[in-house]
Amino acid sequence: MNVARWVVRGSFLVQLLLGIGLWIGRFDIAKPVHIVVGVIFVLAMWTVAVFALRAGGNRVLGAVVVVWGVGLAVFGLVQESILTGGAHWVIQVLHLVVGFAAIGMTEALAGRTSAVRIPPAA
Question: Fewer CB in 10 Å around end: N or C, the chain?
């Protein structure tokens, strides 16, 4: 769980930096890297959710993290075709908000799960 949690944190930070570079238009060549790191971020979210669910963590929040990961991935891959033109910044801000919500929910799930006492394996 801890490794997956740190992958979520690290990949989110990389995503944030790459996203800022893409947003200001100075780092367009990094788009494929942003996509790959986004996939790693979502996979790490799902890993945290699976560990949390297996450990008896919050089932609803675990399911929300899994579904949110799917939505985040789809949204990230199609966002360039949504509201193109001068108003596209709205979609970019929404993508950022969805990303922040993703890490927040994943951290909340991991934190609540680590507070659950896990019995030793028999």
Answer: C
